[in-house]
Every structure is written in C-alpha cells, then in structure tokens.
Amino acid sequence: MAYIQEEDRKYLEEQFSKLNREVTLRLFVRKEGCATCEVEKELLTELAGISDHLHLEVHDLDAEPELGSRYRVDKAPALVVEGERDYGIRFYGIPAGYEFASLIEDILDVGTGEVDLPEEVRQGLEKIDRDVHIQVFVTPTCPYCPAAVRAAHKFALLSDRVRADMIMASEFPVLADHYQVMAVPKVVINETTSFEGALPEEAFLQKILTG
Fold first, then answer.
1. Residues 143, 184, 37: CA angle, nearest 5 degrees
2. Rounded to whole angstroms, how far apart are CA atoms 109 and 39?
3. What angle do helix axes 99-112 and 145-158 make, rounded to 10 degrees?
4. pLDDT tens per residue across span 144-170
5. In the chain, N or C: fewer CB atoms in 10 Å?
6. In sequence order, what are the residues at sequence separation of 6 or more whose Cβ sits closer than 8 angstroms to the Cβ of residue 136?
C-alpha cells in the first residue's frame, strides 16, 4: 500500500531537490504495544526513497535502550530528524494529517540549513541560558497545530538549549491526560509553563524567556 500519492510524490521530489545536506530520519519503534509503529515505518520508507539526501534508520527501543537514552527517547513511535547533529527535533506519534507538512518543512530546514525566523527571535534565542523542553500536543485534524510545532522545532534547530517534541495526543492519551490537554495545540514548557493556541513566534519565545 502506497501512503504517498503520485501527485504528492512529484511535489516532494521538487521540494527535496533543494536539499544540499544529508538528513537522517531516525525512527524508534517497539515490536509490541505500539499500534502505529509499523505504519510509520512504511510511510517513512516511502518518504526516504524520494531523495538520495534522505536516510531512514529504524531502531527497536526495547532492544537498544542505550541509544534511546542517548536520544532521550522514552516512548514509541518516536522520530528524530537530524542532520550534522541531533538538533532536538522530535515527533512522537505519526506525523499524519496537517503534521505531515511539519515534517516536510523540518526536513527542508535541516537539509538546507535555512530557517525562516525574524532576526529579533534569533537574537532572543541567544538569551536562553538553561535547557528548555517544549512539548506540543496536537491532533492530525488541527489546522493550527503545525504553526506551534514548527515554531518549537525552529527554536530547537537554532538553539542548543532547546529540545522540542510534537506529541500526537490520541496516541499518548495517558500523557495527554497528565497535562490536562483539553484543546490543541497545547504547549508545555519545562513542566512549569503551558498555554493553548498557536502564538506568533515572538510571543512563543517570550513564554520561554519568562516561564
């Protein structure tokens, strides 16, 4: 079964022609207790086949716990998008629906080294003096969620201090309940600050700096 339709594949071929750096899609799965792991593996296999600059590596989280610890991955499916290094970009759950676009744009950012952020936001990121963990809870049908995910992932790409997770709420209901996710996108910063909705990048950054 093909997950990427021919028309979409042609569009992705055109987009991925911009890649000038190697991008690794590092997928962590579990053989048991993960209903969507195999589907995501098949989807990413198709995606990686579109460009020679894209590489898929699949790891069993239970069989390779040390690698999971190194990447600070504790649940599956988990996707790490990395280039020359691990930037802290994570997708927990299948990046389906609107979030597929977030994944494509992340790949383009990592694979071109070009990140679209205002200069004032770039300067603000340099003021972060402690580790920041951002969790963005989403659903596949939420049209506002990608903006929050993309902002968080851009911050992670440009700041060594930031680690940013997209979390598909429906795939991790216990975690969603823990953070009282009633609406999406819901953003949780370092367990101490949270907000709902997709804020402009400048306002998002201020939440981090003042949280």
1. 85
2. 25
3. 20
4. 999 999 999 999 999 999 999 999 999
5. N
6. 145, 148, 149, 152, 164, 165, 166, 167, 185, 186, 187
Q: In this structure, are residues 148 and 184 in contact, taking their beta carbons and an 8 Å threshold?
A: no
What pLDDT sits at residue 210? Answer: 87
- pLDDT, tens digit, 9 for 90 and up, residues 101-137: 999 999 999 999 999 999 999 999 999 999 999 999 9
b/e for 154-180, b at 16 or more Cβ within 10 A? bbbbbbebbbbbbbbbbbbeebbeebe
Burial of 36 (0-12, 13-18, 19+ CB in 10 A): middle
Tokens standing for 118? 């205002």
* Chain length of the chain: 211
The structural architecture, per CATH, of the domain 6-210 is 3-Layer(aba) Sandwich (3.40)
